[in-house]
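In this notebook, the sequence line spells out the residues, with the fold written below as integer tokens. This is how one looks.
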Amino acid sequence: MSARIYQKPKHTMQSGKAHTDEWVLEFEQSQARFADPLMGWTGTGDTQSQVRLTFPDKDAARAYAERYGIPARVIPTPPKRLKLQAYADNFR
């Protein structure tokens, strides 16, 4: 049962940056998903993949994983790039 630790990205459909400073510990799937033959819904027998824990910083998430013996890999946050553009550029 391994996990990954990453920083929450900004929601793409909104300009707000709420909760982007939080770090998430998320368990990776240990079983493949399957389609239910009757309803067609996607299911799995792995309940750990539904667990998402949030932490205020990366060190707290890493300490939690070490305390409980969870092998975790930290995914670095990509650098933020600003695309500066003027409204007049839409008409060129």
In short: The chain is about 10% helix and 25% strand.
